[in-house]
Each structure stands twice: as structure tokens, then as C-alpha cells.
Amino acid sequence: MSRTIFCTYLQKESEGQDFQLYPGEIGKRIFNEISKEAWALWMAKQTMLINEKKLNMMDTEHRKLLEQEMVNFLFEGKEVHIEGYTPPSQ
């Protein structure tokens, strides 16, 4: 059965995650406030960031950077800035 939550990112009722995808307090907040749709948008950005910045997920500093970008994107409405990436024009 799917959960409906109010998605902070999309600012509307939307389908919530099936389980907590990220550890700790941030993970709880994502579970309670970020929909599957918004999480999928973040996943695409995250992949681009990892590739662009050649991030190593074994590196604590790299993980911190990614977490900060994730919080900025999901909760503060900040666009992820990726060097050399131009979003397709609408």
C-alpha cells in the first residue's frame, strides 16, 4: 500500500517512499517530506554531481558535500550547480 505525504519539494500531496532511504535525521525527514517523484529528480542530479566532480563515496568529505547538496536541493529549493551542464531549454 502506498503512503501519501505532503512533499516539501513539489509542494503537493504525493506518493511517499516505501521505506527510509537515507540514514539518520535527514533520512527521517526525507521519508516524511520527500515524495518518490522528488527523490527520483534528486537521484538524477546526484548521479550528475558524482560524475562531474568525480566524487568517491568512500570519501567522507565527498559524502558530506553530496549530503549538503541534497539538503539544499530537496529542502531549500536550491538548484544543483553542475559545471559544464546546461539544462535543456524549455
UniProtKB/TrEMBL annotation:
<dbReference type="GO" id="GO:0005506">
    <property type="term" value="F:iron ion binding"/>
</dbReference>
<dbReference type="GO" id="GO:0005829">
    <property type="term" value="C:cytosol"/>
</dbReference>
<protein>
    <recommendedName>
        <fullName>Probable Fe(2+)-trafficking protein</fullName>
    </recommendedName>
</protein>
<comment type="similarity">
    <text>Belongs to the Fe(2+)-trafficking protein family.</text>
</comment>
<keyword id="KW-0408">Iron</keyword>
<dbReference type="GO" id="GO:0034599">
    <property type="term" value="P:cellular response to oxidative stress"/>
</dbReference>
<dbReference type="InterPro" id="IPR036766">
    <property type="entry name" value="Fe_traffick_prot_YggX_sf"/>
</dbReference>
<comment type="function">
    <text>Could be a mediator in iron transactions between iron acquisition and iron-requiring processes, such as synthesis and/or repair of Fe-S clusters in biosynthetic enzymes. Necessary to maintain high levels of aconitase under oxidative stress.</text>
</comment>
<dbReference type="Pfam" id="PF04362">
    <property type="entry name" value="Iron_traffic"/>
</dbReference>
<comment type="subunit">
    <text>Monomer.</text>
</comment>
<dbReference type="InterPro" id="IPR007457">
    <property type="entry name" value="Fe_traffick_prot_YggX"/>
</dbReference>
